[in-house]
Fold:
Amino acid sequence: MRTIRRVPPGILALLALLGAYGAVALGAPWIAPHDPLHQSLLLRLRPPLYRAPSGTVFWLGTDDVGRDLLSRVIFGARASLAVAVLSVSVSLLVGTPLGLLAGWFRGWAAVAILRIVDSVLSIPAILLAVLTVAVLGPGFFDLILVLGLTRWPRYTRVVYGQTLQVATRPFIRAAELAGARPARILLRHVLPNIAGPLLVVATTEFGLMILFEAGLSFLGLGIQPPTPSWGSIMSDGRQYVDRAWWMTVFPGLCLFGLVLCVNLLGDRLRDDSR
Amino acid sequence: MLRHVAGRTGQALVTIWGVLTIVFFALHLSGDPTLLLVPPDATAHQIAALRHQLGFDRPLAVQYLSYLGHLARLDLGQSLVQRLPVATILAARIPYTLELSAGALLVAAGIGLPAGAAMALWRGRWAERALAPLVLAGQSLPTFWSGILMILLFGVVLGWLPTSGAQGFASLIMPAVALGALTMSTFARMMRVAMLDELGRDYVTAGRARGLSLGAVVLRHVLRNAAIPVVTVAALEIGNLMAGAVIVETVFAWPGIGQLAIQSIASRDFLVVQAVVLFVSVVYVLCSLLADLAYAVIDPRIRLSG
Structure:
């Protein structure tokens, strides 16, 4: 397992694309040609490639209050990736230990944990998110908590199943006989051996979190205006669909591209791990 | 068989109880649920009166039991905003969401299942190469984006279809396609894997060796066996479709329970939001129960091993 395998070129290309998205998100303040929050009522709903009298070009046009769409889309990548990375981390941190514990100790604790997992997974995630956002109120950190805390059972289920399998292997028995405590066995021996399937789930969930952030922001329950998010830009765009197609088409294209990238990566990882 | 049914039904009931409990505690996450239900300009006196009226000043355990008691009698409470029973409000919207979900399911199954079967039968040929990107795209398309794009193309530019509302069949087409895209991909992927699984089995080779055409083997045996895993997914997808309706209904101003939930958040009609979540979740659990039972009917191996 420890030998360094050559990374297939397909995966490398996808990682590079994701890296590009990440670089744009991180470098947004330097890359964006304008302030994404700067409004200009004289330049409302200008089409892409519009050249203002002052000579500045708005490559993707402007929105309903005259903000530069390109800059908003660039900053939107930030919201999208930040929420996805952090919420996946939260659910990994909650879901993995519970799955390890259930798979290792089994018995009534496992039954209880798996019942909770089933119940949480029975509430469609987007609705549970809608409900909790409605209670807590929208906001960046609330959004991350909500998404993280609604999705952890996905990881618990996978980790549980994998731990059950790995726990029967001889080297685990050997570690036990050598006197290693459960915490050490789980972290040093079980976890590295289930990292593959865990990574596959995390990748799929990452794509889903990006869609959820955009979806909730579209509904007005995610990232709050004026902070740009692809979902909220498109929500504004829905109002002007007959006059300003660019407000919907470009952020949607970025979102679609990112999710497609993540899903392709997830598919490749899953095929490779078989 | 009876033991299997009883066991699975018991499990489903436990899951529903879990769902009710999670929703109850979600409602209490903010500390005082009364604040969710009052208008922003309510006085402290009004808040206290409402808190007492709704019983939110009682111990949590008492509230929890009374909440379960009401739900057991299918009493969802009274909307403080519309001054109507929540059940009445919900019931008026459910048919629309069912119509939309059924439409989406039809789109998804009608395209997804044949596409998946074709991808398995003509593996590595042009059919798979042409369909694979379509399936992948369907999986990554945000419904609100594809929805707005369709509005732009068929509603605004071509003027073929109404852009919002629920007036007859024409207005159902775009929302159903937007909502069904993701499920379509899921169906296609499941069907492809299930078919590939079956096509590799001995009975296919045996049938072919006896001179049956591939078409005959597929139609008479492979499809039947491949249907087993697909049925389970189909049932689970009904729940996902109803949940996905929250966004699609908002895009198309479709008057179902999804739109109701979002409108109710805006008007602080929290009991209605809670009712929508409970309704969809219970439907989801029941669908997965039905799928399990249907599974046992289709596949005797499960029934007999009980």
Q: What stands out?
A: Strands of chain A lie at 50-51, 57-58. The first strand of chain A starts at residue 50 and ends at 51. The CA atoms of residues 84 and 190 of chain A lie 26 Å apart.
